[in-house]
Amino acid sequence: MKLRKLSAAAAILASSALVLSGCTPGGDDDNGNGDANGAENGENGNGGNGEGGVQEGTGGEFDQEGALYSTLPDSGQKAEMPEDFETQEDTIIVSPGEAPFINVNNDYSGANSVSNAIVAGRMSSGFFYFGTDLSINPDEEFGSYEVVSEEDPFTVEYTINEEAVWSDGTPVTVRDYQIDWAAQAYAGTDEDEEPGAGFSPSGTSLAQYIPDGFQSEEPDAKTFTMELPEFYADWELLVGGPNVPAHIVAEQAGLSVEELDEAMDEGDLETLEPVAEVWNTGMGSEGDWDPDIALSSGPYQLAEWNWEGEETGGSVTLEPNPEWWGTPPGTANLVFDFLNEDTHVQALENLDVHIVEPQGDEDVKLGLDSLAESGDFVVHEGDVATWEHIDFQYQQGPFAETPELAEAFALCLPRQEIVDQLIAPVNPEAEVLNAREVLSFEDDYDEFVEEAYDGRYDEADVDAAAEIIEEHDAAGTTVEINHFGQPRRAAAVEIIDTYCGSEGAGFDIVDAGTPDFSAELLEGNWSGVAMFAWAGSGQVVSGQNIYSSDGAQNATGFSNDTVDEQWGVVADNVSDEERMQALIEIEQALWEDLHGIPLYVHPGIVAADASIANVRMTAAQTSVPWNAEQWQRAE
């Protein structure tokens, strides 16, 4: 599954990845926007009248050659649909991979993954969305926001559309944002150093940067302000859409909304304990849901949830939200089928599914390219802001007992061999990734790496690794490689075993891959190493949640004073040069103390039934369903 990395605003896991660390993406280039070739907007630009009401993409900067569009996209933003765009009685099935949808509340720590977010995102709306080029775009159908003061406190005013309601007709108000703030402000339990009410959010950025919560004239107001005592570089990402309907949470917890308001304002932990229980899993979790509780504020609502467990996936069916006030969704039935990625090519050929986004390997690419040659399918390829890495667990297991063994594992890790065997057949230009905060397709990557990394792990050194293992009498030490069970990661484990295992440096390498690793990962309930990816978008400070000592996504026990200090600089109102220098110092410290090892940027690949219009690949963590409400079969 993809793990989404929370910016200090919003992070995510990816089974293909976790959410991207805070890097500042560079400008668009030929492949960097996630749509394979891009679109030139000439005579056939917006609003054309192609056969069947659609146009064929020209292969310019923002559209895919041969793909169909209701409106030809001319930027990384969502294209504006024609005035006569209506919901079609049809079913479109997409498979994002095997990792399942777990929880209606996407901010719950056990569900914070790409696979969860792409479903939850279709049942919600908010003040902004990420474009295919990682741009941050206001969603004017939901509301508006503006900076009203750049002085202390930095203040932003938000206004929710008067027509915005939950799927039971209840207006979306500031109360729905305040409960997400409370979940972060009062997270934790009595056993924690700072007792909480039992909320388990995936991050605590709202509480950290907005210590007093949101300000409004009344709890059910449509207009509210956010006041930041200190500037925060990712302020625009702090407030998106509400995760849960506060009025339903209150009802399920046995409270009136007035009692909920008072408890949140006063930090009444005892009253908030039943609220936390509902907020965590009570909106709908692991296939257990009630349509009167699992409400939507987006174009689709939950219609069916075929839960087969975290190991076997299942499926989710969405239907149009009857209370949705915006542009109608394109198709009446949107199905997410969580299939093993090994089956994607055959399932697409059989039209058992209509859109797939597998981890690309050589066999997958060959299979999808063969389908595309028929003319019945379209394949999208491009750079995506998702990068693979290996993290060391320092809280328990071999690297907690003998931290020096992390150096041995890093030395024997065959990064170039992994890229050559598993990634280059899909992307011949692929290279080993040597940074976390700037990706290899970004303009300033080479200069950044030259300053931040000295090349010590460029080539596998089995002999040097074996010397460290022998020095610590650690031959045969078991190192579990935890991952989400995808074939490409399993193949990577085999390559690692050749170099680091019993016939190489001397570790006992164990493949511990399983599709249900997501909850264990963020909770830190694993030992050895974890191989996964962060999938990201336009964040600047998201890495703070992962690498800082008290970061909400620090699941490895890593701690470094320089890293903690410099993230404060990155988040501050500083120049680009100062921010980049701070990121370089962070990167240097992460290499020196071995938080983990970056491997490569994921090659993005999406394939779709050619008759479905408006399918657009994206570089962002939102994955190909980012605009699923616009998908529609051409007639």
From TrEMBL:
Residues 26-83, 189-217 are annotated as: Disordered. Residues 150-477 form the Solute-binding protein family domain. It comes from the Bacteria. Residues 1-21 form the signal peptide. GO terms for molecular function: peptide transmembrane transporter activity. Residues 33-43 have a biased composition (Low complexity). Transmembrane segments: none annotated. The keyword Signal applies. The keyword Signal applies. PROSITE patterns: PROKAR_LIPOPROTEIN. InterPro entries: SBP_5, SBP_5_dom. Pfam families: SBP_bac_5. This is ABC transporter family substrate-binding protein. GO terms for biological process: peptide transport. Keywords: Signal.
